[in-house]
Structures are given as C-alpha cells and as structure tokens.
Amino acid sequence: MSKLFDLTGKVAVALGGNSTLGASIAKGLAEHGAKVAIVGRNLDTANEVAQEINKDGGQAKAFQADVSDLSTVEKVASEIEAWSGGWDILLNAPGMNSTTPFLDLATEEWDKIMDVNLKGIVFATQIFAKKMVEQDRGGSIINISSVSSTTPLSKVFTYSTSKAAMNSVTQYLAREFAPNNIRVNAIIPGFFPAEQNRKILSEERVNSIMNHTPMNRFGEPEELQGAAVYLASDKASGFVTGTFIRVDGGFGSMTI
User: Fold this and answer.
1) Considering the domain boundaries, does residue 253 fall inside one?
2) Which N-terminal stretch is annotated as signal sequence (predicted)?
3) Is 159 a catalytic residue?
C-alpha cells in the first residue's frame, strides 16, 4: 500500500508553503519523497520550513514570491525551474482573512484579500500550469479551500466569498486540464490553529464552532497531510479530479 503514496521523483511547488497549514502539507509531501519548493512572501519563514524538511532527510529549498504581485510569481517560476527542471505538484495555500463587517468593507480591503485568495491563485496557477502542460507528464494541482466556501461563516464575508469562488475555479480547471492528465482538486479544512483565524476566535466563537463540530476539537495541521499526499499521488488518486475533500471534524455534516 505504501507504493500508492510514494512521491519519489516528483517535484512539488508549495505556494504559501511557509504558512501554518501550507508548511505542514509541504512537510507531508516531502516525507513521502517529493522535492519541495517552499514559496512564501516572507523568505525567512520559508527558509525555516525548508531547513526543517532538509534536517529530516527531505529535499526542499525556499523561494520568495507574493501571489498578489504576479511579476514575483513569474520570477520564482523561472528560479524553481532552474533548481528542479520542472514540477509535478502545485499546492495553492496562500490565504488572507479579515473580520470587517460588510457595511464597513472598503474596496481597498476587498481587493487586497481577493488579490491573494482568488486573483493571485488563479494567475499563479496559470503560470505554473503552462509548464505542466508543456512537460506532458500530467500532475496534480491542490487548492486549499475552507468550510466557509460552502456555507458562509459570519464575520468573514470577503474570505468566504473568495473561497466559494475558488471551489468554482477548482472544478472549472479540473475540466480544463483533464485532457493533459493534470488533476485539480481542493481540500476543505475545518478549523485549524492557523494565524489567520486565531484573531477572531473569541470564547463565544470557539463555543459556537465546537457546538457545530461533532469531533468537538480543532484540527491539527498534520491532519491535512494525508489528504494532500493522496491527491498528489497519481497512483492513489489518478482518476480523481474536480472534487473536494473535507478535513473538518464533521463540521460540514451539521446544521443545528
């Protein structure tokens, strides 16, 4: 069974690979044999993740890019190609959140969040997918969505909207790239201790989340690794595309 999840010889590009969840997933890919490019806006934190992977016997290198500035994505794609010769797996894990109420929302904040969560990921994917098509060896694109993508969450209007749009993008691109044997799927995490949602987790909100989560706890970042490795592996999920894998402790199965 272990051969199903062997990523030896694969190269993964982890956009947002320096974030809490992105870093954990990147480590999981590396543990299963993938050579991983850790791409983040903050090069120092990206270096920390790459160093941890290398220390544990994996292969990783840190790169700097900001998906809201596509010129940096073009540049980093060239740098990664020079380092690895190409890539087989693209992880889209950047994210930005805000608790601004709808009636107080300004266009500047809307644009800033959408530039990262939607526009940036769409056009970064375009850049990296072109190379995947040219390589003609298939591949896997994994988007990180959210439970707010299917049922909007209070207090995170723009974030929820961007993630709902990302689900549509995932299914559209799954159809677009199927002839190239490039699979496009998304993971829908529940509530994990990521930096972007800690600031809105008041005691009242934590209680509300727990009342809506059958497993009655937050997720651990490592619990996303299995879903990502599965989606990255051609042998394990070679006929899986355009789908969403929930890792949410049952959050999506609850109403009242």
Assistant:
1) no
2) none
3) yes
The string of DSSP letters for 45-114 reads HHHHHHHHHHHTT-EEEEEE--TTSHHHHHHHHHHHHHHHS--SEEEE---------GGG--HHHHHHHH
CATH (domain of 62):
3.40.50.720
pLDDT, tens digit (0-9, with 9 covering 90-100), for 36-78: 999 999 999 999 999 999 999 999 999 999 999 999 999 999 9
**pLDDT score for 200:** 63
Structure tokens at 27: 């480590």
Run of H or E including 116: none
pTM for this one?
0.95
Which tokens go with 227? 């879903």
Active-site residue identified among 5, 63, 87, 159: 159
3-state secondary structure of 40: strand
Domain hosting 140: range is 2-248
Residue, of 200 and 216, whose pLDDT is higher: 216
Measured CA to CA, the distance from residue 244 to residue 184 in angstroms comes to 10
Counting the structural domains of the chain, the total is 1
Look at residue 198 and tell me whether its pLDDT is greater than 70: no
pLDDT digits (tens, 9 = 90+) for 58-68: 999 999 999 99
**Residue 256: inside a domain:** no
